[in-house]
Amino acid sequence: MTEMTLIDAIREAMDEELARDERVFITGEDVGPRGGVFRATMGLYDRYGPDRVIDSPLAELSIIAIGIGAALAGMRPICEIQFADFIHPAFNQIVNEAARFYYRSNGDWPVPLVIRVPYGGGISGGLYHSQSVEAFFAHTPGLKIVVPSSPYDAKGLLKAAVRDPNPVMFLEPKKGYRLIRGDVPEEAYTVPIGPAQVTRRGDDLTVYAYGMMHYYTMQAAEIVSERDGIQCEVVDIRTLAPLDRATVLEAFKKTGKALIVYEDNRFLGYGAEIAALLSDEAFEYMDGPIRRLTGPDVPGVPFSHTLQDFFMPNVEKIADAIRELAAY
């Protein structure tokens, strides 16, 4: 095992896949000699050259359109969108083209495309560098949505995404790029797309989270265990679409109480689907309200540190929400 950061694990996954399969290439804004705005591709241009690590124009629509065309031609593109906030010009290409090609061609035209997207707040990026976009895209059948919360999962899931015959949107919690650390095996491995993971066992209530919020939730669960004797079952969703319904339901049936944590706006956020699933299919197990802890319904994460802290769920807010739910 080697300890590394989230961003190191992502870079290593791309490095290994570029070396493994000559069909793999990377394209996006500043991914070449600069190594990307977050340095995710640092060193890959020097190793693999300008034909496989390709700087693109400032045009997200063309980044994804080129990726779709290359995927249809048998390549394995990794397209980087610099910030999730910039992805909207490519929305049509992703939702109407990449996600639907396989279905509309009766299985003749798979689209093995990976779209890497740094998302989320907490870096004082203001309105246009802090958005969470997962709910927009998880609504679309034919598009897989993956959100890692550990270096182990980041590397294994990204390698699996590159090898997947279907389009995969790989959302990366940029706040955790250098904050989240963990052990990663030196030998080759992948993590399957689809299964959620129970990352902490407990009998009092279940907390669902993904990405940066899972990282905070694990800390909050440890705090309430030590200080309050509350034992949380924590589920890392990991793959938002397709959702691992079986693991989600099993964890709720065990405790009868659910807290769903996500940093997006509360209204129609991804966690609302988790709440609906629990209510629809596990109502008889319910022993308390199904609660959500989210960002507020305002247009964006403010630049101000004080207002950003108000917007973002954090360890203390999650711990308080756990205590409140456990009291029922």
Describe the structure in brief.
The protein has 328 residues and is of the alpha/beta class. It has helices at 6-20, 44-48, 60-72, 91-98, 101-104, 134-138, 151-163, 212-228, 245-255, 271-281, 305-311, 315-326, and strands at 2-5, 24-28, 53-55, 76-80, 114-119, 144-146, 168-173, 181-184, 197-200, 205-209, 232-236, 239-241, 258-265, 290-295. The chain is built from twelve helices and 14 strands.
Question: If you had to describe this structure to a student in words, what would you say it looks like?
Answer:
This protein folds into 2 domains: 2-184, 3-Layer(aba) Sandwich (Rossmann fold); 197-326, Rossmann fold (3-Layer(aba) Sandwich), CATH 3.40.50.920. The chain is built from 12 helices and 14 strands. It has helices at residues 6-20, 44-48, 60-72, 91-98, 101-104, 134-138, 151-163, 212-228, 245-255, 271-281, 305-311, 315-326; strands at residues 2-5, 24-28, 53-55, 76-80, 114-119, 144-146, 168-173, 181-184, 197-200, 205-209, 232-236, 239-241, 258-265, 290-295. The protein has a 7-stranded mixed sheet, sandwiched between helices. Strands 9-11-10-13-14 form a 5-stranded mixed sheet, with helices on both faces. Strand 2, helix 2 and strand 3 (53-55) form a beta-alpha-beta unit.
